[in-house]
Every structure is written in C-alpha cells, then in structure tokens.
Design brief:
- This protein is of the alpha+beta class and about 400 residues long.
- The chain has 2 domains: about 90 residues, Roll (SH3 type barrels), CATH 2.30.30; about 280 residues, Alpha-Beta Complex (Fumarylacetoacetate hydrolase, domain 2), CATH 3.90.850.
- Strand 10 and strand 11 form a beta hairpin.
- The longest helix has 16 residues.
- The chain is globular and about 70 Å long.
- The structure holds calcium ion.
Length: about 400
C-alpha cells in the first residue's frame, strides 16, 4: 500500500480487489441513468464509464443498464472483464483515471441488478428439511422418501424478486388456524424469513441437452444472498399436494451485489458425506470435479440483533447438483435464471435459517416494522475475506 493512495483498503476489508461484485446503481444527479457498478471498498466504480476511459473492448457490455448482457457473454468474457477491473483498481498507472469513476456507496441508489428469468427454489439443507418435516408432519417421517435421491425444488415467481431494501408488505390470504373447520381470510399472522443463497445463471443452455455438474462454472455467473419471505399459515393450508404457492410468491429479496463465482475459489469445499448412493448425473464423488460446496458464513439479524449463523457448507445438495437436476429432463437455462439453495440451517440451535425452526413452530413470527438483514462472508485468498452483499427488508403492514 502506498501512503495517500485513495484506493488503498485495509487488508481485512470484505470488498477488496479479490471480490469485485457487480450491481446496478443510479446517482442523485442522474436518477434515470442505470449503470453497472462494481463494489470496491466503500465505493462503487462506474464500470461502463471506466471501461470507456480505458478503451476496453467490453465497454458496451458494461454500459448496459442491467447485468444480463454481460451475464450472457459467457465465462471467457467474465474472466477477461474481471482481470481488467482488477487491473484498473490496483495498478498504480491507472489510479488517476479510475478514481474519477468512483462514487461513495452512500451517494448511490442500488437497483435489482439483473432481469430475473425463471426463479426456482430448492430445499437442500437436511437439517432444515428434517426440522420442518417434524413441525409440519409430526406423525410422519421427517424426510420424504425422495429427499436423499434428488434435490427437491419448486418454481417460484420471478416477477416478485426484489432488491435488498425494498419494503415487504405483509401478505394476505387464506389460512385455517389449528382447530378450525373453515379457512378464513386476512393478513398472515405467521410471516417468516428463509436465509438462502441464490445462484444467477449467465450462459444459457441448449434445449434437450442436460447440463452436467462439471459445467457449473460455464453457466453460473454469480452468487447473491436471498431471503425467501414465507407466510407459514398460508403455506401450511395450501401446500398439499403441489407445493408452495401464495405463501411464498409475494416477495423474494436478493442482495444488490452479485459476487462472481470466480471470487469464491478459496471457499470451495466438499459437500457433507451422503448416506445414499446417487444416480450418475447427481453423483459428485468423482475425483476430477472441483468441490461442489461453498463455505459461506451467513448471519441473520432481526432489528440489528443477531439471531443465528447458518453455515452454507453444511448443505446436503450442492448448487452444481441442483443445476444438473433442473436440466436433466431437457429443460434449458436462460440468462437471468435464479435458483435458490433453500433455507440454510446447520446442526446447531444457533445455526437455523428461519423463525419456524428457531421457535420450533411456535413463533413469535415477524411483526410490522421488523427489519431482517442477512450478511455473509467467505474465505478469500491469503486469509482474506470475501463479503457477500447484504440483503435486508422491512415488514410493512398489510395494505
Ligand atoms: Ca425457500
């Protein structure tokens, strides 16, 4: 670090040169001009303007109002752009130019960074699925017979994915309270969160050609934090036999920053030991594949107080397995597809990712005015840490 270098960061900063997540921002001066930003320290680099100033071949992609064109460009371009950004932000020769395109984070407004194509939500934590199974089906097996043979998922509502900071209006709907014969209608009394990790698809795939686990990095552009807001009373009444519907579809919050998969190299870990043999397309015990898991340390806070610290490394099913599973029938990927991990819960009582589990089904659930914030970090190179963008949302009364 050079004395007086405006780009110097403390070594333990969560958003240093090995991170460089992407987002979309506007400034107060030009509130209608959406631009791609790259987070560096507590600043946002106007990536398109910097790319033009440096004569980058990728200036057009970085001048877009959303990440989708960059996401669609494929892994070679993602790597090339990342190398350029790193160079602009760390090489002395570029400093004078690049500082002109940095905005303090506090001066910008962040927006949903990509247009969401399809949204799929999985159910990949054995601890979560077991805990919820016991609460929802106390007289049956906690895990359904299929659970250890395939990553269970459902299609959610892409159009209600919102960026961190967007208020969440308490949903209304049908629910049948315990002991009642007839359902009634009204605001959910059991509004909950689900701490999850979202994976953002960049490169599309060809219809009728399943995507192998080994091709995960060719297709997945990045990672975000995700809160799958859930109305437990609506969900419990409606979910049999086709799964979640209106109890989930009112809002799903994602972080404003998408962390490139390439920034998480040091965080790759093997998935936990499986107790059941897997069909070949899901088997990840082969020696040549990179580890399927990610060591992401999540923290859940309610009104500023820490509730739990779910460890993503404990997830039974990996994102690569989920990708292989959701294309194995020939369904193709589109740029902007978002698939979420499912609630992240670990084995310990302070590692649970939703209020349903934290209160063993009893509540209290979220009150109007409550604000929930998810943060996370992952191990980076040389002992550094890679921060994921936070995702927060405040509950507003039913309208
Ligand atoms: Ca979920």
């Amino acid at each position: 670090m050079t004395e007086g270098n405006p780009l110097a960061l403390p070594e333990d900063h969560l958003f240093g040169p090995d991170n460089l997540p992407y987002g979309v921002f506007t400034t107060e001066e030009e509130p209608d001009l959406r631009r791609i930003g790259v987070r560096y320290g507590d600043s946002v680099l106007d990536a398109g303007a910097a790319a033009e100033a440096f004569g980058s071949p990728h200036a057009e992609l970085l001048r877009a109002a959303l990440l989708n064109p960059l996401m669609a460009a494929g892994r070679d371009v993602w790597r090339a752009v990342r190398a350029e950004l790193r160079g602009w932000l760390t090489e002395d020769a570029h400093r004078e130019t690049v500082v002109q395109y940095l905005h303090p984070l506090t001066d910008v407004t962040m927006h949903l960074p990509f247009e969401v194509a399809d949204y799929v939500d999985f159910y990949a934590s054995e601890h979560h699925a077991t805990n919820v199974g016991r609460i929802f089906r106390p007289d049956g097996d906690a895990l359904t017979p299929n659970w250890k043979h395939l990553p269970i998922g459902y299609h959610g509502r892409a159009g209600t994915v919102v960026v961190s900071g967007t208020p969440v209006v308490r949903p209304q709907g049908q629910r049948r309270p315990k002991g009642e014969e007839q359902p009634s209608f009204g605001p959910s009394a059991r509004l909950d969160i689900e701490a999850e990790v979202g994976f953002v698809v960049g490169s599309p795939s060809t219809p009728a050609r399943p995507v192998a686990q080994a091709d995960f990095r060719e297709h997945v552009f990045g990672v975000c934090l995700l809160n799958d807001w859930s109305a437990r009373d609506i969900q419990a009444w409606e979910y049999v036999p086709l799964g979640p519907f209106l109890g989930k579809s009112f809002a799903t919050s994602v972080s404003a920053w998408v962390t490139p998969v390439d920034a998480l190299d040091e965080a790759r870990v093997a998935a936990p030991e499986r107790t059941h043999a897997l069909l070949p397309y899901l088997d990840d015990t082969g020696g040549s594949q990179e580890p399927g898991g990610f060591d992401l340390r999540i923290s859940v806070a309610l009104n500023g107080e820490k509730l739990s610290e779910p460890p993503f490394s404990a997830m039974y099913w990996t994102a690569a397995q989920q990708l292989a599973h959701m294309t194995v029938n020939g369904a193709s990927l589109r740029t902007g597809d978002l698939f979420a991990s499912g609630t992240v819960s670990g084995p310990e009582p302070d590692q649970l990712g939703c209020l349903l589990e934290l209160t063993v089904g009893k509540g209290p659930f979220l009150q109007d005015g409550d604000e929930v914030t998810l943060t996370a970090w992952a191990p980076g190179p040389d002992g550094s840490r890679i921060g994921l963008g936070e995702v927060s949302g405040k509950v507003h009364p039913a309208s």
